[in-house]
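Researcher: Let's try something more involved. This one mixes different molecule types, so please make sure each is placed in the same coordinate frame as the others.
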Amino acid sequence: MAFKAPVQDIRFVLKHLVDLEGVLALPAFQELDTDIVDAVLQEGARLVEGVIAPLNRQGDTHPPVWSDGNVKAAQGFDKAFKAFAEGGWQALQHDSRWGGQGFPKLVGTPFNEALHAASLGFALCPMLTDGVIEALTAVGSPEQQDTYLPPMLQGRWTGTMNLTEPQAGSDLALLTTRAVPQNDGTYRITGQKIFITYGEHDLAENIVHLVLARTPDAPQGVKGISLFLVPKFIPDAQGRPGIRNDVWCASIEHKLGIHGSPTAVLMFGAGKGETQAGAVGYLVGQENRGLEHMFIMMNAARYAVGLQGVAVAERAFQLARDYALDRVQGQAPGRQGGPVAIVQHPDIQRMLLTMSSLTEGARAVALYAAMAHDKAHHHPDPDQRALFKAQYDYFVPIVKGFATEMSLEVTSLGVQVHGGMGFIEETGAAQHYRDARILPIYEGTTAIQANDFVGRKIVRDAGQVTHQLAARMRATLTDLREGQVRAGDHADAFEAIAAGLEHAIADYERVVAFVLQVSSQTPRVAYLGSVPFLMLSGYVHAGWLMARAALAAAQCIEQGETDVFYSRKLSTCVFYATSVLPRVQGLANAICQGQIAETWADAWAQSLVS
Amino acid sequence: MAFKAPVQDIRFVLKHLVDLEGVLALPAFQELDTDIVDAVLQEGARLVEGVIAPLNRQGDTHPPVWSDGNVKAAQGFDKAFKAFAEGGWQALQHDSRWGGQGFPKLVGTPFNEALHAASLGFALCPMLTDGVIEALTAVGSPEQQDTYLPPMLQGRWTGTMNLTEPQAGSDLALLTTRAVPQNDGTYRITGQKIFITYGEHDLAENIVHLVLARTPDAPQGVKGISLFLVPKFIPDAQGRPGIRNDVWCASIEHKLGIHGSPTAVLMFGAGKGETQAGAVGYLVGQENRGLEHMFIMMNAARYAVGLQGVAVAERAFQLARDYALDRVQGQAPGRQGGPVAIVQHPDIQRMLLTMSSLTEGARAVALYAAMAHDKAHHHPDPDQRALFKAQYDYFVPIVKGFATEMSLEVTSLGVQVHGGMGFIEETGAAQHYRDARILPIYEGTTAIQANDFVGRKIVRDAGQVTHQLAARMRATLTDLREGQVRAGDHADAFEAIAAGLEHAIADYERVVAFVLQVSSQTPRVAYLGSVPFLMLSGYVHAGWLMARAALAAAQCIEQGETDVFYSRKLSTCVFYATSVLPRVQGLANAICQGQIAETWADAWAQSLVS
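Model: All components are placed in one shared frame. Result:
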């Protein structure tokens, strides 16, 4: 069966878990209502299901081709990109001053999830463009905004982020690309950037590169990095693509996955452009504050990559579920009769429900974060804005780290459900497995997310956000325990979910206290446990939202809803609480033994060095 | 750095954990001693490091090519196979009656691990041949043995297993390939087999297919399956490859990984051979007992696939470790100074030690099982033979299931350690990730292993083997607690390892009791938890052997050994006990909530069907 955007689950989460009504009631979104949101969800689903999802395998098997500095996009991507642009989808979340539609992130996110699920390789192009739009909206000069934002919002021009150099990946302090100021106020950029997603292609009239580089007198390290705008074609006086700038695609990479997306090596200042001697660049924001400015884009991109994790997990789940309903093999244990569809086998059910409950849980976390983002930006009360900003900042590394690591497990199970067929490329399960593998790496590895999480999101505010969240999670526990009394048929579900959540909250609090305690005296111990801590936090918060989902689903059933969606939701919630959430115990116990583990691990590492 | 066979770790395990001396003292191995074993390890290492390991990437990028029914092996594989055959390596573990060298499995296993690590795609060919040799040695007629075993042991002919058909994968009851008896005592085989590893290639003079098929009057289901030998070329009176049999390779698969290994679709009886009207086959063993006979081969193959998991994990670890020592990026947290090799970062240490400790633990489990195999076959005391046979049977699904699932995690971490470079195919980390993905699928998926484990290895003997193993694990706990008193510098290590092991044993016993309890009344609950139970058992037994490794390593240090190997071993043991073994708690708590999880999971599945 073809991919279907998970509109029903998204509607449920928006309505019951993440306060869509509250977001639509914010002054900025007065003109929107739930009917409009629903129309966006449905129109978006139509586009991605009908036009983009069918291209996914083609992008894998017929990837972009490099030739003499030009890159021809993957087969069929041109038409799809045109449909995407003409539908106005690039403008969905952006400011109406430049032609944007001004939807909240909470509405843009479900569309983006579906778009990524349809094709990660395709959706990367709009995703990077979104990031460039956000950065220029925030720190671009009025002239830069007027020149570059409208064509990007219209989907005529696309954007890229240029951070990585061969010697500077996670460690941007090491970057060496140079930007030399000219008399006319522009800069000349020279250097090499690698891993540039959609760094070169033929889908758009122009490509807007945002580039990190150093000016001649810049301080060492990250405090000497500035942000530059380097257009592939320099806009003329009418804003049309003009002379060819000196930025060139030297090659594209042969990658494990996301073949549909060209990953470019870009040479700035090879002397081959019409500009001579260096690519013309324009300073964006303030000199030496480039990293800070780029972080606007990075945060949006990190969130978006987390969403890619949810997306590819959803797609892998649907493919595996459909196969399990179709493939007949073996007798069902504990039952009479002949061969059955493999969905009748307990271990297939375990795998499918692990996939589905992780995906639903991570989606709820991502949408919760989107809601926090919207309230952080648009709530009339400054205290609420501050509160939600802290929450959003807290959730970004979780969405990025947890949802992408989760997607590795889900896409791997997707292969496993298919048995031998899963290993054959035609089936498609293998592509999801390959595609997903980049997600915990790009836009900051899971370790980078985890360090940010521990350093900036936990330690810096002494765990304040965690205390707020723990209190909210405990409130849900009370709701479950109270609901249990009148839950009737669902009493066992509520009891199991409450028990799982209670343990998980306790472990979460124990680990937060441990991390706060060790981080000042023995920071290496905190960092040894930072990825497990990030994952634990993801599991716990997803467990909390799945518990709330169970409460909401049971209430809907009680109120007479007969759609099978609600009982299925109860199933995934029970499964998550009983079969996935217990992982938290192992993670917590490992983290809290960090002192001795770190001592011996570091001794091991030093023995290799010496 | 190039791949190195892990000879030092293997020597350590053989000496301290799995009683090599006891195996060499068995009457069957009187002529062997540890010097000979060491020479085998070193010679084997020389071959795989120098000749085979360098071909691994080539097999991936220049896979076998099918053309008009013929398959040209991957580039360079012909010379390597010749070196392998001429070195006598195919004969290593086999019976001297047919030219074998008669080494115990405990000695053949380390060589095979290194061979698989060098190239999974290459080593599959000898691996399948080993299985055919074992099956014919056990149930072949004297004439079949005389005709087929010597050329296979010499590496001139290779072997295959033909089980799967499009509609019959895990469920062999569904297979339809027919075998019609002829007047001359032979059979004519017709049907299609898929996923046949090295089903066609040009490395050998002849290919010996073992094929499951049904005779015309055979009962339905698995009790109507017989085993047939179908040579590609029918041997003439002198035993030389003679007329071309009617078995043809219709195509080879485009797979996610192990590209070096041709995976064939075989047509039996397409009428194109010199034999006309069906492939000539010879009954092996008794009619209708084919599945039972094939299980001889399957058990050997399952063990071997588990070993592939250890092998690819070792290779992925070495690649990641070397990269981490080389790549400079970021400051070391908690320390002064500039950019450091990334091995100095706590999270890189966490990943590398997770990889290394899982690999070492799984290797110890695999070698323990090999020891049990040798004693099961060759111990003079029938009670001991029975005891070790039960242990070997118990460990085969663990080696297959646990070591292969573990290899997915290790190869994934191997990509992650490389950061963005890990996603680029040239680096090699991605190949290990792709190659490993077949291991939990072929020769019986992890679910098939887990069902075998629960049904035949736990429930059938009412948990007897588990009780024996629990008692042995508790004895190690006592050793640790006693050793702790005089452990000096290592007291903290012993304490942490003992604490981890004690929890793990208790969880193991709790889960065994739960599985025994539910398996009769609610078998679906037992099967829902069977894969987690299999994994839990693997973690616990690996934890036990790693605890014994810590005791042995500490003793060696105490006795004056100064090689850094011993302190590194202590590190991996401590890390395993504190950071990996705690996963057992989450698994145990999930399994023991199986009743409610199964109820809701099955309701979910039924809602999809209806």
